[in-house]
Amino acid sequence: MRAYIIRRLLLTFPTLFIVSFVIFAVIRFMPGDIVDAEISQMQEIGVSQASLEQARGELMKKYGLDVSIFAQYGRWIGVYPQADSRVSGLLQGDFGTSFRRHTPVLRDIAIRWPVTLELGLIAFIIANLVSIPIGVYSALRQDTISDYLVRSFAILCMAVPSFWLGTMIVVFPSLWWGYSPPIMYTKMTEDLFENLEMFFVPSVVLGLAMTGGTMRMTRTMMLEVLRQDYVRTAWAKGLRERAVVMRHALKNAFIPVITLIGYTLPVMIGGAVIIEQIFSLPGMGRLLIDATLTRDYTVISGIMLVFGLGMVLINLAVDLTYGILNPKVRP
Predict the structure, then answer these.
(1) Cβ partners under 8 Å of residue 190, min gap 6
(2) In angstroms, rounded to a whole number, what is the distance separating the alpha carbons of residues 89 and 94?
(3) C-alpha to C-alpha distance for 241 and 252, rounded to whole angstroms
(4) CA angle at residue 168 from 162 to 173, to 5 degrees?
(5) What is residue 82's predicted lDDT score, i.e. its pLDDT?
(6) What angle do CA 81, 296, 41 make, to 5 degrees?
(7) Coil, strand or helix: which one is 97?
(8) What's the maximum distance between 2 C-alpha atoms anywhere in the chain?
(9) Which residues of the chain have pLDDT under 70?
(10) What are phi and psi of 97, to 5 degrees?
(11) Of 225, 331, 238, 267, whose CA–CA distance to 123 is shortest?
(12) How many CB atoms lie within 10 A of CB 106?
């Protein structure tokens, strides 16, 4: 098991290299860049065409866009010297400097990532605390009224977009009851109650996005496992329902559910970007939207690289969980 973990960790580096290059290239193929934005501002104030051409060349050099995309990537990761002959980049722990704010990208991410992490963790906990027990209960009460209600609720969770639900929660309570979710961010270390009050509603909205699929998968796998011979033997021995479910059925039914949870986590990360914007949470998702609107390449690349690293580690955790739940898949 130790060799397997080391091998997977070593595979993380080439994976991140490929992910980083794809992110870097795709961002720069987006229409328009920060130079175009600043040139447009100059045109609005009546700058002459000759001055605009000169300014474009200076801005391209200032932002490091005057070289090929491969040279830009080399500068970003730190294997190609900067315009000032200085070698710095990801390999030296430098994510670059924001084009707009002129602040270190790594510092901006360090300030924002606890917010996104807290939102994701609370949403993940809520989603699984709701979906897994209800999915198990629905399987045990197949074709009853409770089962139909649970299945309808799961379909509703899958059908309703999280951004629409979040918008409705922000708009209608303020119109009907004069209540709006808190918008002033409070750290957990400063006031735990106010912090949880701000994160609870957006976490529920985000968690519901993965609740439906997990609930249906849990129900389906439980029904399949409950029809197995060894489970029927456990029932025949007179074991209690709780013992049969927890000791014999749930562990085997949970393996495909783990796979689904691993696949839905990227959806949750993407949803966090929108939810942070709706509920005014100062996390990495909101920073990513601001950077995208202003074509702040270094900030976008840094945030997407962090998200990519998170997904690689999540997939590693899913694979290791397989080995814990099922000894047959252990290397």
Answers:
(1) none
(2) 5
(3) 16
(4) 135
(5) 60
(6) 110
(7) strand
(8) 90
(9) 1, 4, 44, 47, 80-89, 322-331
(10) -120, 140
(11) 267
(12) 16
Query: By the 8 A CB rule, do 222 and 136 touch?
Result: yes
The structure tokens 């106010």 sit at 194
Cα Rg of the chain, angstroms = 25
Name beta bridge partners: 104. 97
Helix ranges (DSSP H) in the chain:
2-28, 34-44, 49-62, 69-77, 105-140, 145-159, 162-176, 192-226, 229-236, 241-243, 250-278, 284-293, 297-325
Q: What digits encode the pLDDT tens for the residues 315-328?
A: 777 777 766 666 66
Each residue's pLDDT tens digit, 157-179: 888 888 888 888 888 887 888 77
pTM for this model (two decimals): 0.79
Residue 276 is predicted with a pLDDT of 85
Residue linked to tokens 């489970």: 231
Residue in 89, 116, 92, 94 with CA at minimum distance from that of residue 105: 94
Q: Which amino acid is at 229?
A: D
